[in-house]
């Protein structure tokens, strides 16, 4: 049934885990939406009904579906289906129907994504793996600082543990606090207070996240030296292998045969040609020269094979045959045995080399120390491996599927792959987790990641990252649902739990709303966003003072374009004027709420 009376709404296609999170957040912001469902799903339909979000049921996201969803008056279309094919079809259809609408598309395949990005028009083409991987890499490398470029000023975000009871102003002066976690041994399992006032009282053992210039942080003992340039990530991309479609048995058999032919030594085929010449020549000779009682063509072929294989069944022999034929038989047996041995050697080489290639990762891992172990070579896993290797790290990956599509990419990167179940103790030990510098559990199955994490906790023992000062191994746990991540961190002591959905959703939401996002980073479990907004004349932020904004956001700088000055660490009485550019940091939900105000005119 067509939707009527809607204008400036957002059309959501693809209600996977990411799609549900996007709809949930847009609903919280009060954005009008229409959801297109491809099939009946009572759970989703009940959820959307509770939120008051209208939905349409269409077998495909074609022209009719978009027409019923009101694409002519829509502000944006979000294609968040987990399938690249479905997202691509949806995005191209939406772009054809409305060239000027913002189209935000989820595509993991880099080749296709790059092609879509060319002359794409308004919107964005994003990959969850590219958005989530940088946070995982930072956890693996124990990076507790993040650099942010705000109005041409390099600022650094750091975390610190409070050593005495005091206010934040007494401890850190005019440094801007971004978050505080009270009374928690593990801040990853605690409730975080975003952007607290400087007069907030903190106690010994609390955790705090601060932002300031390198010189200011060094002055307060929060930095030992200037950090190396490494800006807050903005969704980097990396070449990836195209994911093949599932083929039929005949096609798969032909692929196996073709791969076997490619693996065989070229001399194998020369040896086969020599064998064929021996068989044909011997068949002709035996057919016309073998006497008493003589041979048919089939008999000659049979006796040739029997002689080459040096077996005898008593049915034919060279007893009583001409000397020349007996001499030829000697030659044939010697050549046949030699050629057979050569053929067997070539086949054995292929079989052994394949087995060795599958066990090569285990052999290399035995000799490694200080490497990073990744469990899972999916989209996120291969992206994390690429980033780690670009930073000079050695990577060992555990993968259950020996035919995984990303294995050629891993081989090219130099990743040592251990084949096996990442939840099994022996497999983890084979990857050298007890000698590793970090472990990232990145399988697409949450329960498998949690199980592997618990096995790791037992293996690592005192090296388990519990926040103490002794040398530990950080373990990064991938989950999809942030509330699950919090309770898992609290119950089992995980300190680095990352929700790929929480890390990626802000980018899709901001792109759909047409907002300017500079970058994102993580403060313990929470995703923080760095954004900028231009204050429009008579807009929602024109003339607003900072004290009237959401207390969860932190305005770190105001670029007064009319006067050409930049106000750093503005106070609560500072005011936005038309033409100013405000730079803000905060939890992405609160920050997007503030940035949206700048759209109203």
TrEMBL record:
A Pfam family this chain is assigned to: Ion_trans_2
Region Disordered: start-end pairs: 226-245
Assigned keywords, A-Z: Membrane, Transmembrane, Transmembrane helix
Residue span(s) of domain RCK N-terminal: 369-498
Gene Ontology biological process terms in this record: potassium ion transport
InterPro entries the record matches: K_chnl_dom, NAD(P)-bd_dom_sf, RCK_C, RCK_C_sf, RCK_N, Trk_Ktr_HKT_K-transport
Domain RCK C-terminal, first and last residues per copy: 518-600
Highest taxon of source: Bacteria
Name of protein: Trk K+ transport system, NAD-binding component
Species this chain originates from: Williamsia sterculiae
């Amino acid at each position: 049934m067509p939707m009527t009376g809607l204008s400036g709404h957002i059309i959501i296609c693809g209600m996977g885990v990411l799609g549900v999170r996007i709809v949930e957040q847009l609903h919280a912001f009060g954005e009008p939406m229409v959801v297109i469902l491809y099939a009946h799903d009572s759970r989703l339909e009940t959820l959307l009904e509770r939120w008051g979000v209208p939905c349409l049921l269409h077998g495909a996201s074609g022209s009719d579906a978009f027409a019923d969803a009101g694409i002519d008056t829509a502000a944006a279309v979000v294609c968040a289906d987990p399938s690249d094919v479905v997202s691509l079809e949806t995005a191209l259809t939406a772009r054809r129907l409305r060239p000027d609408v913002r189209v935000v598309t989820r595509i993991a395949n880099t080749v296709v994504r790059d092609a879509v990005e060319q002359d794409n028009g308004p919107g964005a083409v994003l990959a969850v793996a590219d958005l989530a991987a940088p946070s995982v890499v930072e956890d693996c490398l124990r990076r507790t600082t993040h650099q942010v470029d705000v109005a041409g000023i390099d600022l650094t975000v750091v975390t610190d543990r409070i050593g005495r009871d005091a206010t934040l102003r007494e401890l850190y002066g005019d440094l801007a606090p971004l978050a505080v976690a009270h009374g928690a041994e593990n801040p990853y399992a605690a409730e975080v207070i975003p952007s607290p006032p400087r007069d907030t009282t903190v106690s010994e053992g609390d955790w705090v996240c601060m932002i300031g210039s390198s010189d200011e942080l060094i002055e307060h003992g929060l930095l030992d030296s200037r950090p190396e340039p490494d800006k807050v990530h903005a969704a980097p991309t990396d070449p990836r292998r195209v994911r093949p479609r599932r083929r039929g048995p005949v096609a798969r058999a032909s692929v196996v045969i073709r791969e076997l032919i490619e693996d065989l030594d070229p001399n194998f085929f020369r040896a086969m040609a020599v064998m064929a010449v021996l068989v044909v020549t011997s068949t002709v000779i035996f057919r016309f020269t073998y006497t008493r009682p003589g041979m048919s063509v089939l008999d000659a072929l049979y006796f040739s094979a029997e002689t080459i294989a040096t077996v005898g069944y008593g049915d034919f022999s060279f007893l009583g045959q001409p000397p020349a034929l007996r001499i030829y038989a000697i030659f044939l047996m010697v050549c046949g045995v030699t050629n057979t041995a050569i053929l067997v050697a070539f086949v054995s080489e292929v079989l052994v080399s394949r087995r060795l290639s599958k066990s090569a990762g285990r052999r290399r891992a035995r000799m490694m120390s200080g490497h990073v172990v990744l469990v899972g070579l999916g989209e996120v896993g291969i992206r994390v491996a690429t980033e780690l290797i670009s930073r000079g790290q050695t990577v060992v990956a555990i993968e259950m599927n020996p035919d995984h599509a990303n294995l050629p990419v891993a081989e090219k990167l130099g990743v040592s792959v251990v084949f096996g179940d990442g939840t099994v103790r022996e497999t983890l030990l084979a990857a050298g987790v007890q000698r590793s510098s970090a472990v990232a559990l990145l399988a697409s199955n949450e329960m498998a990641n949690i199980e592997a994490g618990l096995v790791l906790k037992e293996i690592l023992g005192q090296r388990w990252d519990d926040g103490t000062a002794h040398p530990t191994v950080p373990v990064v746990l991938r989950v999809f649902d942030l509330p699950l991540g919090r309770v898992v961190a609290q119950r089992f002591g995980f300190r680095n739990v990352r929700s790929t959905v929480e890390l990626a959703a802000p980018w899709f939401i901001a792109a759909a709303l047409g907002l300017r996002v500079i970058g994102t980073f993580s403060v313990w479990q929470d995703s923080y966003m760095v954004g900028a907004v231009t204050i429009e004349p008579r807009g929602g932020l024109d003339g607003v003072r900072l004290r009237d904004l959401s207390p969860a956001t932190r305005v770190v700088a105001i670029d007064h374009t009319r006067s050409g000055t930049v106000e750093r660490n503005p106070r609560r009485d500072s005011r936005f004027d038309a033409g100013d550019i405000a730079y803000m940091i905060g939890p992405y939900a609160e920050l997007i709420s503030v940035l949206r105000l700048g759209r109203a005119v």
